[in-house]
Amino acid sequence: MTLRGFKSFASATTLSFEPGVTCVVGPNGSGKSNVVDALAWVMGEQGAKTLRGGKMEDVIFAGTAGRPPLGRAEVSLTIDNTDGALPIDYTEVTISRTLFRSGGSEYAINGSACRLLDIQDLLSDSGLGREMHVIVGQGQLDAVLRATPEDRRGFVEEAAGVLKHRKRKEKALRKLDAMQANLTRLADLTTEIRRQLGPLGRQAEIARKAATIQADLRDAKARLLADDLAQLTATLEQEIADEAALRAQQAEVERALATARDGLGRLEREAAEATPALGAATDVWFRLSSLRERLRGTQTLAEERVRLLGRPEAAPRGQDPDELEAQAERVRATEAELEAEVARARDALAAAVAEREDVERSAGEAERAVATLLRGAADRREGLARLAGQVAAQRTRVEAAEAEIGRLRESLAEAEQRGTQARTEFAVLETQVVGAEEGEEGLDAEHEAAADEVERTTAAVKALEDEAAAADQERATWSARTEALELSLDRKDGAGALLAADGVGVLGSLAALLGVEAGYEDAVAAALGPAADAVAVESVDAAVDALRYLRTEDAGRAGLVVAGDAAGEDGTPAGVTLPDGARWAVEVVTASGGTGRAVRSLLAGVAVVDDLADARALVARHPEVAVVTRGGDLLAATRAWGGSASAPSVLHLQSALDEARTAHDAAAARAERARFALVGAREAEQAARARYDDTLERLNESDARLAAVAEQLGHLGATARSAAAEAERVRASLARASQDLDDAREALAGLVERLEAAEAAPEQSEEAVAEATSERDRLLALASAARTAETEARLALRTSEERSRAVAGRAQSLARAAAAEREARER
Fold first, then answer.
1. Which Pfam families does this chain map to (predicted)?
2. Residues 535, 559 contacting (CB under 8 angstroms)
3. Considering only CA atoms, which of 717, 676, 647 is closest in space to residue 433?
């Protein structure tokens, strides 16, 4: 035995026990008792008080002043097994036990981890162990000597090896009780489930209808969504077409805007050139406005004076109507003259405007002619060589611009080609993606169906495995019960000897040859009496031979029933009518093996009732009838026996055995059917899993393909967008280059014109320039005079219009006044 950290043995200590008696000698406190405690502990002792401690952790070395405490205690016990006392195939057996300070515990046999129960079973077969009285501690010897008979019986059973089997029997009985409780619970659950099957069936039917409705609803929703998708797709296509049209319009508007901007630039330049003239015109307008205001004031004063001077003197009864009408006629004549004057002023203004425009046009032409003469003279002075260099340089710029435009057009064509190709490939791949997505939906549905099939088949396999296990367990239970009942029916008396012997004409036990209706076993056993344990033989000779065999072999005594199917009494006395609820005993028994006549004879005149009260009433009415109750009591006119029975009768045991065998066969058949169905279910599960794996693999491949196509679509989309952006940039650059080319060509044309003019024109004299300048100045003076005349004509027209407006309506007013005065005088 090796001790490590156990109580006072801090270091590893090995004790070798030789054959014979070993004595451990030492002073008090040296650890002698610790050796015995180590033996008890390693063999499975679980009581801390038995080991002289308060708790199990006290067996671990607690430390001293010079040595710290340890974390675990370990004891190993090696047993010599050369004689095979221990039921294990080793000549040496080492059992060990380790306890950690954290509370964990480990057991091992020959270094292999095991359970405490394994060690106890191993040691119990050799007379050792925790519950064996091989270790007698201090004060325990007196308890053994003073033991009661029950305690001494325990010691004897321990020494004989019966204790282990008793423990196992108790364990088996506990398991049977637990199994019976489980069976009772199962019966209750089965009853409850049967009661719930009806409502659950109705609920299942409703659930199926709901599932059908939901499927129809999902289909309708899918159809609606598909219709919405088609409509949205058509709308999207229309929007895309509208967007393309709008983009074309936008490009056209941008081109128009560019043209307008160019015109605006030219107008701004012209406005800048016309700013001095605008300032002069503004000053003239201000002066004219001031003059107009003075003229209006003068006109107003004159009209007031004319009105005051033209007012007639007041007559006693108002003005003369004739005079008023004459004034009205004069005013009409004046109004006609003023309108004619306005017409003449308008004609004069039109003539002044036309004259001013002609003079200004001539002055402009003269100005340009002077500029041309001056520029030609300057060009001539600067030299034709410089002008030719400018023309060459400008022509080079034009050629460079044309080359740039050609390059830009090629770039634009390439970008548009790349964009078109990318869009075409994108559309093709998009079509493929649509088809792949439709296939993906089919794969998803197929995969889900395969998953559901796997789940269903797995559940079916699990259910069949549970059913097979339950059937095997039930078969084992009934097998154990059958064996127990067979052991109970195994006779150790003369009947058993006859049943075990051969060649004496024995048919079998009478109980085995009888079939009794359920619930009547005790009644038939009471009616048969000792014959219930009898053995059936073929004939009287066979009965004689059987008796001789028992006597010769000294095998004990036995009751014999002689078989024979000869007709005889039917076991029902004539003239006896049984009350309701009572039956003749022969009616509840079915005999086989030729024992019918004997059984009818044994049960002749015996009736079966429910209780003793019915039996007493029937015997009182018919004393010749013997009556037995279903509880096993017999009552007749001259005899009676019964009471309580502590053990079941042979018929009851035989009936239970038959029932157990039938249940065993039924359980075995169910187990066989379940295993047969399990084979098919496992094959279906394997096939379903294969389909599941196949659909999963195909789904993964489809996902990979879709991912690759999506990546390619993204690349093509980026390419198309990049090509479109590049084409847009190239178009903008091409527009700018075209504008630059137009400007360069215009400048080149001007330079060429100047060069040709300079080369073709003769040398201009100063007199020609002076004459052109004098003509320009004269025309400018005429233009100024024409503008002055136009201004005066406008003022004259405005004055005539004001005068005409002043007298307008006065003639009508005077005519109304004359009519009113004449009417007043008539009254």
1. SMC_hinge, SMC_N
2. yes
3. 717
Q: What is the mean pLDDT of residues 781-809?
A: 75
Helix (H, G, I), strand (E, B) or coil at 583: strand
Rg (CA), the chain: 69
Give the Cα separation of 264 and 247 in Å (integer). Answer: 25
Strands 589-591, 560-562: parallel, antiparallel or unpaired by DSSP? Answer: unpaired
Considering Cα of 552, then 556, then 562, then 563, what sign does the dihedral take? negative
CA–CA distance, 283 with 277 (Å, rounded to integer): 10
Q: What are phi and psi of 641, to 5 degrees?
A: -155, 165
pTM more than 0.85: no
Q: Is 274 helix (H, G, I), strand (E, B) or coil?
A: helix
Q: For residues 550 and 381, give the distance between their C-alpha atoms in angstroms, rounded to a whole number.
A: 172
pLDDT tens-digit series, residues 183-234: 988 888 888 787 777 777 888 888 888 888 988 888 888 998 898 899 889 8
Whole-angstrom Cα distance, residue 331 to residue 810?
7
Token pair 């055995």 is found at 657
Q: Which of 426, 430, 428, 413 is nearest to 721 (CA)?
A: 426
Assess contact for 72 and 34: CB atoms under 8 A: no
H helix or E strand, kind and range, residue 544? helix 540-553
- Residue 440 has which token pair? 């993906």
Task: Give the model's confidence band at 544: pLDDT under 50 very low, under 70 low, under 90 confident, else very high.
Answer: confident
Cα 51 to Cα 70: distance, rounded to the nearest angstrom: 19
Is domain 2-129 given the CATH code 2.20.70.10 in the classification? Answer: no
The alpha carbon torsion through 410, 411, 415, 417 (nearest 10 deg) reads 20
**What integer pLDDT is reported at residue 97 of this predicted model?**
94
Long-range contacts of 470-477, Cβ-Cβ distance < 8 Å, separation of 24 or more: 471/667, 471/668, 471/670, 471/671, 471/674, 472/667, 472/671, 474/663, 474/667, 474/670, 475/664, 475/667, 475/668, 475/671, 477/179
Residue 96: its pLDDT value, please?
A: 95
Q: Where are the beta strands (DSSP E) in 659-770?
A: none
Provide the angle, in degrees to the nearest 10, between the axes of the packed helices 321-382 and 384-489.
100
pLDDT band at 313 (very low <50, low <70, confident <90, very high): very low
Cα-Cα end-to-end distance for the chain: 168
Give the residue from 614, 455, 615, 608 showing the smallest Cα distance to 520: 608
- Of 157, 411, 363, nearest in space to 778 by CA: 363
- SS3 state at 666: helix
SS3 string, 179-227, reads: HHHHHHHHHHHHHHHHHHHHHHHHHHHHHHHHHHHHHHHHHHHHHHHHH
- State the residue for tokens 């002069």: 280
The pair of structure tokens assigned to 423 is 């869009």
Tokens 């425009």, residue located:
357
From the number of C-beta atoms within 10 Å of its C-beta (0-12, 13-18, 19+), residue 6 rates as: buried
pLDDT class of 139 with cuts at 50, 70, 90: low
- Domain residue spans of the chain: 2-129
Q: Which amino acid is at 47?
A: G
pLDDT score of 668 more than 60 = yes
CA distances, 340 to each of 71, 335, 791 (Å): 140, 9, 20
DSSP, residue by residue, 400-417: HHHHHHHHHHHHHHHHHH
φ and ψ of 504, to 5 deg: -115, 15
